[in-house]
Design brief:
Length: 113
């Protein structure tokens, strides 16, 4: 007996894609925040819970990614070279992000009112 190939899951025509839903939520949230800023203060605890959940998932995600990457690399020599390349890449990208962030902060000057 030959198994059939799995058919892709089709969403209904009236349901937008996840990207579209996120963009709609972003626009609606920005508009509501602009229109009624006091509502944002009323649900601050939801914001704090969401940020703390995101922060708590970062360390396990990075750790498991590194472990899977090292396990999939095979030879120890490859792992060493890959580690050096990853460290150099991390330093370069972090430095670039730092400079971009400083430039944007000095240009926008948040907190001045």
């Amino acid at each position: 007996m030959i198994a059939k190939a799995a058919q892709p899951i089709r969403r209904p025509w009236y349901l937008p894609s996840l990207t579209t839903q996120i963009m709609i939520g972003l626009v609606v949230g920005g508009f509501v925040g602009w229109l009624r800023p006091d509502w944002g203060n009323a649900v601050y605890f939801l914001r704090d819970i969401f940020i703390n959940l995101i922060k708590s998932i970062i360390a396990p995600l990075v750790f498991s990614t590194i472990v899977v990457g090292i396990a999939g690399a095979g030879a120890l020599r490859k792992v060493g070279r890959m580690g050096i390349k990853a460290l150099i890449y991390f330093e370069l990208v972090t430095t670039a992000a730092l400079f971009i962030g400083l430039a944007v902060v000095n240009f926008i000057k948040p907190g001045l009112g």
